[in-house]
Amino acid sequence: MSDKVIHDAPNFLKQIIEKDIESGKHNGQVITRFPPEPNGYLHLGHAKSICLNFGLAEEFGGRCHLRFDDTNPDTEDVEYVESIKENIKWLGFDWGEHLYFASDYFQQLYDWAELLIREGKAYVCSLSEEELREYRGDFNRPGKDSPYRNRSVEENLDLLRRMKAGEFEEGEHVLRAKIDMKSPNMNLRDPLIYRIRKTHHHRTGDQWSIYPMYDYAHPLSDAIEKVTHSICTLEFQDHRPFYDWCIENLPTPGNPHQYEFARMNMTYLVMSKRKLLQLVKEKHVSGWDDPRMPTLSGIRRRGYTPSSIRLFAKRIGVSKAESIIDYEILENCVRDDLDASAQRAMAVLKPVKVVIENLPDGHVEEIASSLHPKKPEWGKRTLYFTKEIYIEESDFMENPDSDFFRLSPGKEVRLRNAYVIKCKEVIKDSAGKIQELRCEYDKATLGGKPTSDGRKVKGVIHWVSAQKCIEAEVRIYGRLFKVPDPENVPEGQDFRVNLNPESLKITPHAKLEWSLQNAAAEAHYQFERVGYFCLDSKDSKPGHLVFNMTVDLASSR
Description:
Rossmann fold; single chain; CATH 2.40.240.10
């Protein structure tokens, strides 16, 4: 795909910002923010939002804030904060000095809550949780006013201050905005502003016994930071009227506007934090960073590159229309990136020994081969051609089909970067299992040279020296789910029924070319004719190398 196509992918938000700058809105400033809740690990859906918010700010000479919306201490943890920061930087973005937390504004948010009470726009409600649901109504039935809606300003202030002081238990009281219980928009039916939570907060400790609701803290945090374009996904569209109500009814220093775009849905994935946590807890995966998971920690361990994720975000664009992105688009972005950046190497995952009979015992021939066929400046690597080599089990067929152009009895094949060999004999054990293949090589054919008599040799296979190779564990990762829409299940079942039992295949004793003994932790390698691989960042160690398959080669191979 050309750069022009990539950059021209639809992005209605870019068009909005261009018009705002042209009209002088916000004095031409562009300030965005990425506002994660620190209650889990980031996934591919977050990556799209990160690329969007930081990318737009960068493109228009603005800035993007990183703000943690840490208003629910029950589910938040410093571990998640640090993981989010690390993954954003891994993607290639930096918030500079603009790191914020909603908890930075707790006192201001509380002061504004008292202001809303004094102006008759908020009240303390003492309905139980069940009563709150009943009074709120539903989409077919209007809500009805709480019996506590007309408490006096003095009583409301007294109750709120006592809530703050910790005098009441959780659930005894809440603070609500006084808007319209008959509104067709459920989010305007006197939404909650504060609730009691006697939980230790990862930043403020036990200072607070009440915490602001997300829908109250979020717009006001945007306004405090003078965000100009508050970008979120479509499920917050119905929340926008309350977002605007908060800004309009309080003396905020900024006047942000909320814009919604369609969240990213992808085939073969689930991206619900709750469901991902379920997979972790039930040990369907090894953890949040399992390379089959759609978390950024997982895809990073698998070997997906930051540049491939940024490329993916550009290719899919931004719109308001819900759609499902084919996972193959992401894999193609990874392939495009790694094709240009990955060193070449050879690895035999299911080895069959080949003995080259017309080579002397102890023969070791060094063959120089490029690290990348299109990048001569990268230099060469050394292959070792010896009397015994390994080839892939699937590259030999004793009784071949007519369209099989690899090795078979009496037939020839070319070893990549080396010689043409011909199979002379198949050695089997008593059970009929192939032990080794006896072959001869054509000395005139080194490095792709033609045979001396002009014979046509169609097949080319990879190989490694049996004497000069390393052994490694190779993990082949497939898709975690076996169907494109994992959440489409028969009644009475759930998404787990669609888990792919073949999503991980381990080859414990693969044979790899000698140069890979010095494989670098952050490097990527194309195992020729197999796929792209990297060292596993968690399990690989000196003496026990573990390679993860990042993505296979294009299906047209």
